[in-house]
Amino acid sequence: MLGRIVAETRGDLARRRAARPEPVLRDLAAARPAPRDFVAALRRPGLGLVAEVKKGSPSKGPFARDLDHVAAARAFRDGGAVAVSVLTAPAFFAGDAELSDVAAALAADAAPCPPLLRKEFIVDPYQVLESRALGADAFLIIVKTVPDAAAIRELIAAGRALGMAAFAEVTDEAELGLALEAGLAEAGGAIGINNRDLHTFEEDLGTTERLRSLVPAAIPLVAASGVRTSADLARMRACGVDAVLIGEGLTRGGDIAGAIAGLFPDGPGSGGAA
Fold it and tell me: Which of the listed residues 74, 110, 191, 252 has the most CB atoms within 10 Å of its CB?
């Protein structure tokens, strides 16, 4: 499935470039406020929460199709999330180009806007520019979908030129090695360890526990997928991650504030329930 997704993403790039040429995106990006510091947000004391606006997934299909993405992002912010992730691949995550809606709404509110992460199958520098034009402060690189360290380095450089942080998602030692070889640490990026196998979709928190010691201390670390209970949070806190990324577990039930409070009784940054 992952190979098909990447192939379709690459195949769609020509259409996207024609619809919104790079000069148009550069004008939109230049009109945005200065990027918020995603990495600094992850570095706040305690176990942080990166909360994700997620309506569906390739493995489970749509599960929150009617989710109000702006209301969800506001609930995440009000619940203490250090950053908000927004999925923008409509064919695979039951979402749409909703990032610009979230960016505009949160920027207009009196409350400070947390950094926004674009979750997308980003394989080309054009998509990095597109992310900034949509209002993202950071962007995802799924290392498994990028051919080599040189290609990762090109994406990181495109982000740095725009003041954006790269968030490299890895699932094993080899992928982590590629991200580091590409200069993620020197570029001020962050690592996300995905506890979900991208081929079988099985989840194992042991993935983060196994890889944690290989991540340099200078790089903020986020554990993604499989974090659903207080016990899961305790495991991730014990292995020293800076934050956890949670999407479905916060949006599926319809009570985002209650879901956050259930996992973080004292609020994100407290380390969650023991």
Answer: 191
Copy the structure tokens of residue 173: 């030692």
Closest CA to 228 of 248, 257, 201: 248
Read off the DSSP letter of residue 35.
P
Rounded Cα distance, 219 and 39, in Å: 9
Handedness of CA 18, 19, 20, 23 (dihedral sign): positive
In terms of residues, how long is the chain? 274
Phi, psi of 49 (to 5 degrees): -120, 120
d(CA 172, CA 181) in angstroms, rounded, equals: 14
Confidence of residue 6 (pLDDT cuts 50, 70, 90): confident
The CATH architecture assigned to 2-263 reads: Alpha-Beta Barrel (3.20)
Comparing CA positions, the residue from 245, 70, 4 lying closest to residue 140 is: 245
Domain boundaries defined on the chain: 2-263
pTM for this predicted structure: 0.93
Amino acid at 264: F
DSSP state of 97: S
Q: How far is CA 146 from CA 62, 129, 137, 216, 256, in A?
A: 26, 17, 21, 22, 33
Distances (CA, A) of 85 to 82, 169, 257: 10, 13, 17
Question: Quick one: tokens of 51?
Answer: 């909360």
**Pairing outcome for strands 61-62 and 83-87:** unpaired
C-alpha distances in angstroms, 219 versus 107, 214, 233, 254, 274? 28, 11, 20, 34, 25
Evaluate whether 223 touches 236 at the Cβ level (below 8 Å).
Answer: yes
pLDDT score at 56: 63
